[in-house]
Amino acid sequence: MPTNLAIDDDLLVEAQKVGGHRTKKDTVNEALREYIQRRRQGKVLELFGQIDYDSTYDYKKQRRRS
After folding, report:
1. How far apart are CA 35 and CA 44, in angstroms?
2. Domain contains 59
């Protein structure tokens, strides 16, 4: 989908160099992927302290093969 955006050229060129991308399109797409990943990871952090764990669970037992 074609989109016109007013993006800071200096910022885009720096991101392109740092990311090692050949095109501006590749740079923007990678930046969007990283943005989404970071936001999703932030939502996982909200779960800390809200999940009940089974204190009797033996993770080492699960590693052994039958």
Report:
1. 15
2. no
Element (H, E) at 12: helix 9-19
DSSP one-letter code for 48: T
The boundaries of the domain holding residue 23 are 9-48
Number of structural domains the chain divides into: 1
Classify residue 55: in a domain, yes or no. Answer: no
CB atoms within 10 A of CB 66: 2
Taking only the tens of pLDDT, the chain with its 66 residues reads 788 889 999 999 999 999 999 999 999 999 999 999 999 998 888 888 787 888 888 888 878 765
In eight-state DSSP terms, residue 46 is T
d(CA 26, CA 39): 20
pTM of the model: 0.65
